[in-house]
Design brief:
The complex is a heterodimer of chains A (138) and B (140).
Chain A: E1 12-14, E2 20-23, H1 28-31, H2 39-42, H3 47-60, E3 64-70, E4 73-81, E5 87-96, H4 102-117, H5 125-137
Antiparallel strand pairs in A: 1-2, 1-5, 3-4, 4-5
Helix pairs in contact in A: 4-5
Chain B: H1 3-12, E1 17-19, E2 25-28, H2 33-36, H3 44-47, H4 52-65, E3 69-75, E4 78-87, E5 90-100, H5 106-121
Antiparallel strand pairs in B: 1-2, 1-5, 3-4, 4-5
């Protein structure tokens, strides 16, 4: 992967209550109107898959990087705790599932698995295993 | 024609579009006019990218036989039952949604794929598929 998540501008900054208190360059159109809102209220279903990692970053005071699936996207996310109890989130979409046709869905599942195989296993194995099983049934 | 086809045709009486021989939309039923009225005069495929190869066999069957035809297909994240009814003034097409992919999380994707699989196979969701192992159900 040519560009690391760390090299990208932060997409959003959360406060300790997971409200969006900052929006980085390139994310204004999506997150700008959401400033002041609680992240989980804006993206239903996202709390259960993202919050455990954010909590870990806050608890350990160390950056946490992981791969997660949400809303049809597979993304690499890096959560970096700041000294002011805020959390910076860097976000890189790896692939979006194409659900237009069954062929397109299977093709993007194949590509997703191939891309995940190129990543360090420590933070992509859960998604990879699930997608592999899904692909077997698709 | 089986009972599901008859039921679909009954529903089709109020939600349908009519196509001419070139698949141009020449009529939209009153209940669909708000959503699809702007399709009038347009070729159906201009609004449904990559749908032609999926929908057209059902349309061709109806036109060739002069009889209503049905097909269950996957398109745009949904499983749909197509009903095509040939008539003197065109081909009436009704599309009923049977199941939908939910890509919110891996869990919803997995569960909705089960429903999609079942709908495509004509099974009730949760009913075992004798053709394949229960790979999807292996997920937590």
């Amino acid at each position: 992967m040519a560009v690391t998540v760390e090299q990208q501008a932060p997409f959003v900054v959360l406060d300790s209550a997971d409200s969006i208190v900052g929006v980085g360059p390139g994310a204004e159109s999506q997150f700008g109107p959401l400033l002041g809102s609680v992240m989980w209220d804006c993206f239903p279903g996202s709390e259960q898959v993202f919050k455990p990692y954010y909590d870990e970053a806050r608890r350990t005071r160390e950056p946490v990087e992981f791969v997660q699936f949400h809303d049809g996207n597979i993304a690499r996310v890096r959560a970096v705790p700041r000294t002011d109890d805020r959390l910076e989130l860097y976000w890189e979409v790896i692939i979006r599932l194409d659900t237009l046709t069954l062929d397109a869905l299977i093709e993007t599942l194949d590509r997703a698995l191939a891309l995940l195989d190129q990543m360090p296993s420590a933070y992509r194995d859960g998604v990879r295993k699930a997608l592999h099983l899904i692909e077997g049934g698709a | 024609m089986n009972s599901s086809a008859i039921a679909a045709l009954r529903t089709a009486t109020d939600t349908y579009v009519v196509l001419d021989d070139d698949d141009r939309v020449v009529s939209v039923s009153p209940r669909l006019r708000h959503d699809l009225g702007h399709w009038l005069g347009h070729v159906l495929w201009d609004h449904l990218p990559a749908a032609r190869e999926i929908y057209e066999p059902c349309f061709q069957q109806a036109r060739a036989s002069g009889q209503p035809a049905q097909s269950v297909v996957f398109y745009s994240g949904r499983v749909k039952r197509l009903t095509a009814i040939p008539a003197a003034d065109g081909l009436a097409v009704h599309i009923e949604r049977l199941a939908e992919l939910d890509v919110t999380t891996l869990g919803t994707l997995t569960r909705s794929l089960e429903r999609v699989e079942a709908a495509l196979a004509g099974r009730a969701p949760g009913q075992p598929d004798p053709r394949s192992p229960a790979s999807l159900r292996a997920l937590p």
